[in-house]
Amino acid sequence: KTTSNIQRRTNSTSVTINGASYKTDSWLNVPENIIEKVPRRLHLQKDHPVAITRQIIESVFPTPTYKYHNEFNPVVTTHQNFDSLGFPQDHPGRAKSDTYYINSNTLLRTHTSAHQADVFRADASEGYLISADVYRRDEVDRSHYPIFHQMEGARSWDRAKVANGDVAAAVLSDLEKLPKHNIKVQDPNPPFHDERNPRQAEHHSPAEAEALAAHLKRSLELMVVEIFTRAKAAAVKADPNFVDEPLQVRWVEAYFPFTSPSWELEVYYSGDWLEVLGCGVVTQDIYINAGVPNQLGWAFGIGLERIAMLLFQIPDIRLFWSQDERFLNQFKGVSDNLDSLKRFVPFSKYPSCAKDVSFWLKSSSAAGGNTKPNVHDFHENDVMEIVRSVAGDVVEDVKLVDEFTHPKTGRRSMCYRINYRSLERTLTNTETNDLHDEVNKVLVEKLGVEIR
Ligand code: FA5
Ligand code: MG
C-alpha cells in the first residue's frame, strides 16, 4: 500500500499539471500539496536565491557554446527518466516509494537527466545547461524537500567536425582556452580505475577519455571557484574580519547508468566533505540512440538548493518556498547585479515543538491464508509524505527514534519524532495538537497502522 490518495477526490481519473491534463491509474501517488507547487518554478523567479544560483552557474558556462533550456515540462515518461539513460528494470529509483508517478508510464522527473537524450537528438550543439524543478519522495529534514532544483550541463564534440577527426587534440585545445585556478584538488591516484569505473574502450581511445575527463574536471572546478568567490565576498560584507579556510575540492569515483567513468565532486566546507554534483563521460549509447553517433562528451548534474544554502547561508530548505517578504526582500536586485549578493540574515527563530507518534505496523498478508507477521509492506517515505501532506511547511524534521519487534507476536512497532516549527510565526499549542492528531488519524487511515 502506498499513500496515493492523500487529500484527493477518490473518483478522479485525471490530474491537471501546468494546464495539461493527464490520465491517472493505480500508480498515481502525487499528493495535492506537490501538484500545487509545480507552477512555482523557483529557478525562473527573478531575485529568488534558486534563480540567482542558476544565473551564477550559467555565467561560468557562457553562450553560444552552451545553450540554456529552463522551461522543460516536469511531466516526463518512464522512458525519458529511466530507460533512455540505461537504468535497469529493477533499479530502486523506479520504485513507487521513491518516485512520484501520475500513471504507470508517466511521472514527475526525478532529475534533469530525463532530458539528456532529447536535447542531444533535437540539437547537435556543442553544449547545454538545463535547469528545472525535480521531484523525489524522500526523508523530511532541513536539507530535504520533495521538490528541489537541478542544473544539468553537457559539452559534446563531433568527430566529423574537429580538425583531422582528432577529438583528443580538439578537447585539449579547448581545455587550454579555459581559465586556470590555484585551488587544492584531490584526485584518485591513479586517475582511472577501469576495473570498477571503466573508460568506454569500445568507443573512446584512452587519449579521448583522458582529454574529456580533464576538460570536465577543470570546467566544474572553475564553477566551484566562482561560487565560493561569491560566497566569500558575501561573508566579508557581513563581517569585514571574516577569514576563510582555503577552498579544497576532491573527486570521488561514482556510478551512474548514463556516464562512465563517473565522479562526484566534493567541497570541504565547515569541517566536512559535502557532495555538490555528479558527472562523467556520457555513455556512448545515449548519443547513438539519439541519432548523433559522431558526438562524444561529458555531462554533470548539480543541486541548486544545496549550492544556494552555502552561498546565502540559508539554514533550512523550506525557506526557498516562503512567500514571506522578510525572506524575499533580502534578495531584491541581485538577479540584475550578481555582485550585490549578500548573506541571508535569519529572522527570529520561532519555538519548536516535538511530538512522538508510536504505532504497530499492519502485517502485510491480512487477507486470508498464509499470514507472515514479520513481513511488512511499509516504507518510511510514506510516513514522511503523510506528515508533509497534513502539516505542510511547519514540519522541520521527522526522525525514527525507536523501532522494535515483539518477541512473541512478531509485530513491529515504530516511533517517530515530529518536530513542528513554523519559519514565520509561533504556533499555538492547540494548532500543534490539532496537526498532530490529524497526522495520527491519516497514518491509521492510509497505512492501516495501530497507534500505541
Ligand atoms: C543525479 O541526479 C544525476 N542525474 C546527476 C548526473 C547528471 C550525473 C549527469 C552524471 C551526469 P544525484 O541523485 O546524485 O544524481 O543528484 C545530483 C545532485 O543533486 C547531488 O549531487 C546534489 O547536489 C543534488 N541532490 C540530490 N538529492 C538531493 C536532495 N534530496 N536535496 C537537495 N539536493 C539534492
Ligand atoms: Mg548522489
Question: SSE layout and pairings?
Answer:
Blueprint: E1 14-17, E2 20-23, H1 32-35, H2 49-60, E3 66-69, E4 75-77, H3 78-81, E5 101-103, E6 106-108, H4 116-122, E7 127-135, E8 147-158, H5 167-177, E9 184-186, H6 206-238, E10 248-256, E11 259-269, E12 272-282, H7 284-289, E13 295-303, H8 304-312, H9 325-328, E14 353-360, H10 380-391, E15 395-405, E16 412-420, H11 429-447, E17 450-451
Parallel strand pairs: 3-7, 9-10
Antiparallel strand pairs: 1-2, 4-6, 5-6, 7-8, 8-13, 10-11, 11-12, 12-13, 14-16, 14-17, 15-16
Helix pairs in contact: 2-6, 2-8, 5-6, 6-8, 10-11
The structure holds adenosine-5'-[phenylalaninyl-phosphate] and magnesium ion (MG).
Fourth-tier CATH superfamily name of the largest domain: Bira Bifunctional Protein, Domain 2
Strand content: 25-35%
What summary fits the major beta sheet? 8 strands, mixed
Ligand species: adenosine-5'-[phenylalaninyl-phosphate], magnesium ion
State the end-to-end CA separation: 21 Å
Mean pLDDT: 92
Question: Given the helix and strand composition, which structural class is it?
Answer: alpha+beta
Radius of gyration: 24 Å
**Strand order within the widest beta sheet:** 3-7-8-13-12-11-10-9
| CATH class wording of the largest domain | Alpha Beta
Number of domains: 2
Low-pLDDT sequence parts: 1-10, 365-374
Question: What is the H/E order?
Answer: EEHHEEHEEHEEHEHEEEHEHHEHEEHE
Number of helices: 11
Beta strands, count: 17
CATH architecture type of the largest domain: 2-Layer Sandwich
Helical fraction equals 25-40%
Task: Note the overall shape.
Answer: globular
